[in-house]
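Fold this complex.
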Amino acid sequence: MSDSFDLIVVGAGPGGYVAAIRGAQLGLKVAVVERESKLGGTCLRVGCIPSKALLESSELYEKSGKHFEERGLLVKSLELDLARMMKHKEGVIATLDGGIQGLLKKNKVERFIGHGRLKGKGVVEVAGESTVTLTGKKILIATGSVSSSLPGIQLDHDRVGTSTEALSWPEVPKHLVVIGAGVIGLELGTVWRRLGAKVTVLEYLPRILPGVDEQVAAEAKKIFEKQGLVFRLGAKVTSAAAHGQSCRVEIDGSEAIECDRVLVAVGRKPCTDNLGLEDAGVQMDKRGFIQVNSGYQSTATGVYAIGDVIGGAMLAHKAEEEGVACVEKMVTGHGHINYSVIPGVVYTEPEIASVGANEDALKAAGVKYRSGKFAFAANGRARAAGHTDGFVKVLADEVTDRVLGVHIIGTHAGELIHEAAVAMQFGASSEDIARCCHAHPTLSESIKEAAMAVDKRAIHS
Ligand code: NAD
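Structure:
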């Protein structure tokens, strides 16, 4: 094995491994340094993928228990085997990890297991079973992020834990308190509610899902409450700690809650500890994010950074795009991301998906826009499937009609949103979408109808 490379990528999450493969495709000799035995980063090991496995399984459980009967499907006895559900989730992770290993091999990317640390210009020291020193013409930091917490919270990573622990609890909590009504809190809160836990979600702000279109978030709250989630908004958690098998959560100005598990889901912070960044001259901002220029170059020559560690939307697909753009810029001088067309999805049921600006952002920017809305209750396919909650909202420039944002709450919203993303990438107007023939009966017709509604000519509402 050689120890001299064109590019050394530190971190094999979605940003890092994708950047490594793209670099290899462009002819670079690439090494990837990852301290975990599994590749794929938080997303694959303890994030997007395991949470989706549990969301799918718990949805099947809830549906077969509560909704099959109305379709004439009588399930005589239904039992939860949580250990098996967890085993299925682990199997999904193992298969995908094997897939990434295969991709790295196929692209001749060399993999080093251990903690990578900058050790002078162009040098990365890897502390694994033994210590290896690598040299690289360029170094790319793609170390992602870790869960953050709050003062007063005593994380024991068991009873009081983060998303990592909440993906592997050995039994269903009787009462789970989730701190934070953001994406993680709602996705994992939904999993455990479906499996039988009482779930109370404490949120500091007067609304759930900050960043999501306000009308969509308000609709989501109503639906999740109907499903059984209990929200306490304006609740500032001051402390949380376990004592034996139970936990106590204290809230500013209101009664404390006793429960048996706490999930702390109050955001994530960049993972930059012990990387040797300061010594290498890599500047970080006040919140610890690595500062980069438009080519993802840090303040240290030859050191680049992408993904969660540079801030912006903490999304796997944003990191992947940055990985590709960064490496393409290194090699060809060109590389581009359209940051205004990065979709976001919350994988609850209904799903919540958006791309582009929401109404608050457009109002704040003083942009004049028209809005078209269409409810899934008026969509034939949604009716047949029994998923009538939610709507599509299309926002288009008042003068040019160019689509500025699309927001969907509804079943399969996370798949539907990409029609809007592609349309926006090509600079489509709402009329372009409205005049595009959509197959009947499909959920996608709701996007066409919402686009027609921008011009007040939706047919089915
Ligand atoms: P988040 O920022 O989405 O939500 C955190 C919530 O905690 C906020 O609503 C905040 O107001 C609340 N909060 C903060 N302090 C509080 C306090 N003292 N008491 C009560 N509430 C408090 O963070 P997250 O849900 O932890 O997710 C972290 C990151 O991971 C996000 O950037 C998210 O986009 C990303 N992520 C994305 C997905 C997805 O795309 N499906 C899934 C998981 C995570």
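The chain has a mean pLDDT of 97.
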